[in-house]
Design a protein that fits this description.
Layout: E1 2-4, E2 8-15, E3 24-30, E4 36-41, E5 44-46, E6 49-57, E7 64-74, E8 80-90, E9 95-100, E10 103-107, E11 111-120, E12 127-133, E13 139-143, E14 147-149, E15 152-160, E16 167-177, E17 183-193, E18 200-206, E19 212-214, E20 224-225, E21 227-229, E22 239-243, E23 249-253, E24 259-261, E25 274-276, E26 286-290, E27 295-299, E28 304-308, E29 319-323, E30 331-338, E31 344-347, E32 356-358, E33 371-373, E34 383-387, E35 393-397, E36 422-423
Parallel strand pairs: 1-8, 10-17
Antiparallel strand pairs: 2-6, 3-5, 3-7, 4-6, 7-8, 9-11, 11-15, 12-14, 12-16, 13-15, 16-17, 18-22, 18-30, 19-21, 20-25, 22-23, 24-25, 26-27, 27-30, 28-29, 31-34, 31-36, 32-33, 34-35
Length: about 425
């Protein structure tokens, strides 16, 4: 039985009862070298049955061959039976396992990917099977490839159902060398957050005066102060909400493509609420706290809330940031359309042929023509949909990281509207 240093391996212990024997038999092991620990699951068998022996070798374990003895003791009579195991400890794990990212935050009704990489020394070509444990209720997992041969990367997608309870879970991904039984693990921390608002495009109406948050004159100038205004139906009053892994939202104006921002992450109550080009920092991240009449929108960097200055009833009044109080002039009602298709990874199946849209031979060449092909479960047949502020999606192939595109930017005469894709579960 082979075990790598800093690794683990398993073996089955089988107990066969004769002549109606049903006494409980307790299992122990002796003769293990320093740094190797063992456990049996279960540790007691009554009658016939089997137990899984797991051996864990510390990184400091001295390599070499060892003889260990498994002993089964009849808990009633004290009679024993033994079996010998030849244990081989090598100089190190033949492969290692890593996850990227190792921490994920996601809302219900969303899917998130994590890449699992098997790294190994030159010449390692054993099959490695992958599985995951500790998946919480309401979450399903799927591997694009649940087995790798030698070094490589597989993608695991976690899909969060609409009724998945919020909470933090530790998932353990295990890779097992099919040839030796040796295994390696990597952990993933998954935070399921309550969904205040699904990703989508909304208007924001102030509960105090029924005026809408507006980019004045659809300005595209970074640093423009936002105002409140009567409804126009224009894109200057439409806001794209996108949930971020941090648990906060970006809020982007559909007309200007600029982001709601606490300028300079200012802690000063009364500072203007502005739209600014993407800064990729906390000044553009917002928390949504539900109330009975809407949501309180507060900035991650400062905790200040989007506020109708002085509880003004006047269309055109500039919006500010103020200490969060939950007063009506800080409560906003979201209206409009949510995402028809949540951001996530999907396959696209043609309704006529039943074939799946695919990147041929997992090509990474820009300009490669996309084909239809029989479903294979390969990454080249999975597409990442991301809603943009314009109301349209980008569609990116998972394996090539290239985007679906119309190379001529012209609509052909036989273009058709696609059916909704199938979500990867």
């Amino acid at each position: 039985m082979g075990v790598h240093r800093a690794g683990s391996a398993t073996a089955n212990v089988t107990q066969t009862a004769t002549n109606g024997f049903t006494d409980p038999v307790n299992y122990t092991i002796s003769g293990l070298p320093p740094g190797v620990t063992a456990s049996f699951s279960p540790s007691t068998i009554a009658g016939s049955g089997s137990s899984t022996l797991t051996l864990n070798a510390a990184a400091a374990t001295t390599p070499g061959a060892y003889t260990a003895t498994v002993t089964g003791t009849d808990s009633i009579s004290g009679a024993t039976q033994t079996a010998t195991i030849i244990l081989s400890i090598d100089s190190g794990p033949a492969f290692s396992l890593s996850l990227a990212p190792a921490t994920l935050q996601v809302q219900s009704s969303q899917s998130v990917p994590a890449n699992i990489t098997v790294a190994a020394a030159s010449g390692f070509d054993d099959p490695v099977t992958l599985c995951v444990g500790g998946v919480p209720a309401g979450v399903t997992d799927a591997f694009y490839s649940a087995g790798l041969v030698g070094p490589g990367t597989s993608t695991m997608v976690l899909s969060i159902s609409s009724n998945s309870p919020p909470g933090i879970s530790t998932l353990i991904v295990t890779g097992t060398d099919s040839a030796t039984g040796a295994s390696q693990t990597a952990s993933l921390t998954l935070s399921v957050l309550p969904a205040a608002v699904p990703n989508g495009v909304y208007t924001l109406t102030n509960s105090w005066n029924s005026l809408l948050l507006t980019d004045p004159s659809a300005s595209t100038t970074s640093g423009t102060q936002m105002i409140q205004s009567t409804a126009t139906g224009g894109t200057e009053q439409q806001w794209q909400f996108v949930f971020q892994p941090s648990g906060y939202y970006t809020i982007q104006n559909a007309a200007s493509q600029l982001y709601l921002t606490d300028p300079g992450s200012s802690n000063t109550p009364g500072i203007d609420l502005e739209q600014i080009v993407a800064t990729n920092d906390d000044s553009q991240l917002w928390s949504l706290a539900p109330s009975s009449t809407g949501v309180l929108i507060t900035n991650k960097a400062t905790g200040l809330a989007v506020d109708d200055d002085g509880q003004s009833l006047t269309s055109g009044t500039g919006m500010i940031l103020w200490a969060a109080s939950g007063a009506a002039n800080q409560i906003w009602t979201l209206s409009g359309k949510t995402t028809a298709l949540p951001n996530g990874i999907y396959t696209l199946t043609n309704g006529s042929s039943g074939l799946v849209l695919a990147d041929p031979a997992a090509s990474t060449s820009s300009g490669a023509q996309i084909i239809q092909w029989a479903a294979s479960g390969g990454q080249e047949q999975f597409w990442d949909f991301v809603l943009q502020p314009s109301g349209y999606y980008t569609i990116q192939n998972v394996v090539s990281q290239l985007f679906l595109a119309d190379p001529s930017s012209k609509r052909s005469s036989n273009a058709r509207s696609p059916s909704l894709p199938t979500h990867r579960s």
